[in-house]
UniProtKB/TrEMBL annotation:
GO cellular component: membrane
Keyword tags: Membrane, Transmembrane, Transmembrane helix
Protein's membrane topology: Multi-pass membrane protein
Cell compartment(s), UniProt: Membrane
TM annotation in the entry: 16-34, 46-68, 89-117, 137-160, 172-191, 203-227, 248-269, 349-368, 374-394, 415-433, 439-455, 467-486, 498-516
Identification of the protein by name: Amino acid transporter
Length: 539
């Protein structure tokens, strides 16, 4: 019955160029439209350092996942790795956290497009001005957001082939517009004195702590996060051994250069008189780069930016519908989610039911969280919690499954894996109280699904499943509790002052990391891991 399937799937395998374009289309989304402004409000000119720190954090985490992604090139891969080594409970927690971040990303991109629409300066566009009020989407704006998320979904509904063509086209446009914006703002109104202006507090107007807070709170981690799109479509890529890591590395290098230059340009483009009057935290824009272009009278750039305010979020939204649906579909394989969500349409090769479910849930989420910055914090924190399982999984596999094929074997994993875990833990803390607690509660809301299906399985091997997961449960409790008692710059009660709070996080993260590595369980899921790994070609 399925004899024709492999041929169809082979035809739609993605080339390296398509992989890079897909990754860039995911990475360069609403983050470039709002991230520079949000970061500058929090840490002033030092926001440039925030983007570099964010790049280091995500770069090292991505480095870990390159080995895992090439070992297990499969659809929805990031939802499965933790379950291979530590059992279905940890696998569920990790995949649920990852899915929460992905399904939240769909509305944030739609919100970004609607917020730029709401500031259209033309008289004929007055009907859009009520879409956003004080940074929050209104009821009329929500209807447009729902429509945009539906369009994201429909563009993925009919196959990988349509996705590939769409993202390759939008990615080129999304590279050109930020580049043109950087050049024009630098040429038309760059003020180097903004970087050291005493009236605005100098280069570090609010001290060093906000540099780290901005990394998570202003959407920097969120902006870089999208490398996982490549991991989650591993079995749809030509020559995954080489093209997974090449696609991730090339896309990250390009996006880091663009984001750092955008922040540099944004800081220098602010009018010094405005800056001296209100300070960095007083800058209030609806559509940051478009507002700057209006102030500088570059009308054609204004039009281009408003156009890109559709293209960038749409490109990212469309890319992540693919990743989000595959993540939800993959969760059904642990038998702790309804099986119908994992059904793949045989004709088009897409998990259509999962896509529809994600659209509904995205609409519900944006009805609760109607602000871009809040959505960015939720995404960053839940993503980092999911990512934290990767270094533990990699170290456990090195120790307990040395026979597995590793097309890409990362160097110095005994240093890089714990470092990645520590950096992820710090970035979770930087999200600030109460965001850390709120996200952990949202992750805990998934557990009733797990326990319902565990009951249907007659609680088989429950003790073993918990044995592989106690370290993560304790870790999440610690992160939530420590966020509350931590230093004032990160929303805590200041029981432990900055920067000593960082030292506590680092030390405790190492404890949880090694506890996690030694919690390895010889799971039934390892049989699935072996079968996926057996298909890998090392040469």
């Amino acid at each position: 019955m399925n004899n024709n399937n492999p041929a169809k799937i082979t035809k739609t395998k993605m080339s390296l160029f398509s992989v890079v374009m897909l990754a860039l289309s995911s990475i360069i989304g609403s983050g470039w439209l709002f991230g520079s402004w949000e970061a500058a409000k929090i840490s002033g000119p030092a926001a440039i350092i925030s983007w570099i720190i964010g790049a280091i954090v995500i770069g090292i985490i991505a480095y870990i996942y390159i080995e895992l992604g090439t070992m297990f090139p499969e659809s929805g891969g990031m939802s499965k790795y933790a379950g291979y080594t530590h059992g279905p409970l940890l696998g569920f927690i990790a995949s649920w956290a990852n899915w929460v971040s992905l399904v939240t990303l769909l509305p944030i991109e739609a919100v970004a497009a609607v917020q730029y629409m709401s500031s259209w300066p033309w008289s004929w566009a007055n009907w859009t001005h009520g879409f956003v009020s004080n940074g929050t989407v209104t009821t009329s704006g929500l209807l447009v957001v729902f429509l945009f998320i539906l369009i994201f979904t429909l563009l993925n509904y009919w196959s990988v082939n349509i996705l590939t063509k769409f993202t390759s086209l939008t990615s080129i446009f999304k590279l050109v517009v930020p580049s043109v914006t950087i050049i024009m703002l630098l040429l038309s109104g760059f003020h180097p004195e903004n970087f050291t202006m005493a009236a605005a507090g100098g280069f570090f107007p609010y001290g060093s702590a906000p540099i780290f807070a901005a990394t998570t709170v202003s959407g920097i981690i969120f902006s870089y996060n999208a490398f996982q799109t490549v991991i989650n479509i591993g079995d749809e890529i030509q020559n995954p051994k080489k093209n997974i890591w090449r696609g991730i590395v090339i896309a990250l290098i390009i996006s880091i250069a663009i984001y750092v230059l955008l922040q540099f340009t944004f800081i220098g483009a602010i009018e010094p008189q405005m800056l001296a009057k209100v300070g960095w935290n007083g800058i209030n824009f609806k559509s940051p780069f478009a507002d700057l272009a209006i102030m500088l009278n570059i009308n054609w750039l204004v039009i281009l930016l408003y156009l890109d305010a559709f293209v960038s979020p749409f490109g990212t939204g469309v890319s992540f519908v693919a990743s989000t649906s595959r993540t939800l579909a993959a969760m059904t394989q642990s038998h702790h989610m309804p099986k119908f969500l994992g059904k793949i349409n045989q004709k088009w090769g897409t998990p259509r039911i999962a896509m529809i479910a994600n659209w509904i849930i995205s609409c519900l989420l944006v009805s609760v969280f109607k602000n871009w910055a809040i959505l960015a914090s939720v995404i960053s924190t839940s993503t980092l919690i999911a990512y934290a399982t990767g270094p533990v999984t990699l170290a456990a596999l090195r120790k307990h499954a040395p026979q597995f094929k590793r097309p890409v074997r990362i160097n110095a994993y005994k240093i890089m894996a714990p470092l990645a875990f520590v950096l992820a833990s710090l970035a979770i803390y930087w999200a600030m109280w109460p965001t850390t607690m709120e996200v952990i509660i949202v992750i805990a809301l998934g557990l009733p699904f797990y326990f319902f299906y565990e009951g249907k399985l007659n609680w088989s091997n429950t003790k073993q499943k918990f044995a592989g997961s106690w370290w993560m449960i304790a870790y999440l409790c610690f992160m939530a509790g420590f966020s509350y008692i931590g230093s004032t710059p990160f929303g805590g009660q200041n029981w432990i002052h900055y920067p000593f709070d960082f030292l506590v996080i680092i030390l405790m993260a190492l404890v949880f990391y090694y506890w996690g590595v030694h919690s390895y369980q010889n799971t039934a899921e390892m049989t699935d891991a072996q079968s996926v790994n057996d298909r890998v070609k090392e040469h």
